[in-house]
Fold Late embryogenesis abundant protein LEA-2 subgroup domain-containing protein.
Amino acid sequence: MAEKQGLNGAYYGPAIPPPRHYHRPGRGSSCCGCCCLVTFLLKVIFTVLALVGLFLLVVWLIFRPINKVKFHVTDVALTEFNHTNNMLRYNLTFNVNIRNPNKKIGIYYDRIEAKAFYEGQRFDYQSLTPFYQGHKNTTVLNVVFNGQQPVTLQGQELTQFNSEKASGLYSITLELSLRVRFKLGKVKTTRFKPKIECDDLKIPLIGLSAAGSSGKCDIKF
């Protein structure tokens, strides 16, 4: 190794080599990958929280006591309700008012299944036409059950039927199984599956009458 001589012949020793920089391959890319993964997970979490928050807001706006969607059976016509030899023959029509009192929320009724029950037994089923209900709107559903179905009534059930037949006033339950979406501005929620139960219905045979003590129906999720 050549020795370095300075001015005036002074000797400064051997030349100092430049510092060497060592690089560990793969460490930088690994850190970047971890950071990207954490960022992605945080974005997913925030997105899920935002969607959940929007869902809770819409449900609260729809079903709070002030602006609750209301279902009400207004009219019922029962022209036949006869049970012989474990066969029920019936002719029954319901008018159901659906009131959406919300100012900014519309409702998509994607599926409407109407079911009629007597003494806990379903005796008919109808699928109604889907529709969209705008804000501050009242829609009337017309549900018709007409036909005959095997229905077995024994013991207390048969006694109850004979008692109601004598009085001419029958206890019939209407149930609506729905699949709905809510629209708030341009945002549409996921589908919900509420069940509407109208079980306070006392229906007289023949003629048109107000239903039950109130005709109001309960919403269950």
